[in-house]
Amino acid sequence: MQEGYVLPRDQQPLMASEREQYLLMAYPFEIAVFEATEQMEETIIRWMRRIISNKSAFTVQVHQQIQEDTGQLQICLADKGAFAQLANELKVVSQFISSYQCREMYFNLRPAIQHQLLCHSPAYTITELVLLRKPFGQEQYKQVNVFALKP
């Protein structure tokens, strides 16, 4: 599992030592970042599974460009509608998280840019979403769950 794009420190949710940072991804896109306690994880997974398993797989159109100033590959979505709809449906999970004095989900669709990632196709079919967790003070995310979309 690749490591997702991590928000710059000034945009990351504030974390207390008992909280962990979670990242919801649809390869190669980061969908949401949030913090929660490990005790909340089972409920969060159950709610996410219920919401995500009712959605059908979808295709997203992308275009790529090389940034002139950095020379890095940048992947952009042509239409963020499907992800915006998913973010709207996940607001109930975000509200649950905030009810435990954790910040709500930060929905910010960003590509996980990797140098070997070159678009051979102008579209990706999203068939699953991956939930990753990073314990406080650690750098590596670990896969927590994979949520399959309906075919």
Break the fold down into its secondary structure elements and pairings.
Layout: E1 19-26, E2 29-37, H1 41-52, E3 58-66, E4 73-77, H2 81-89, H3 91-98, E5 106-111, E6 123-126, E7 128-135, E8 142-148
Antiparallel strand pairs: 1-2, 1-7, 2-5, 3-4, 3-6, 7-8
Mind explaining what this structure looks like?
The model is unreliable at 1-7 (pLDDT under 50). The strands form two sheets. A five-stranded antiparallel beta sheet has the order 5-2-1-7-8, with helices on one face. Strands 4-3-6 form a three-stranded antiparallel beta sheet, with no helix packed on it. A hairpin with a 2-residue loop joins strand 1 and strand 2. It contains three helices and eight strands; from the N terminus they run E-E-H-E-E-H-H-E-E-E-E. 19% of the residues lie in helices and 37% in strands. The radius of gyration is 15 Å and the shape is globular. The chain is an alpha+beta fold and 151 residues long.
Quick recap of the structure?
This protein is of the alpha+beta class. Helices cover 19% and strands 37% of the residues. It contains 3 helices and 8 strands; from the N terminus they run E-E-H-E-E-H-H-E-E-E-E.
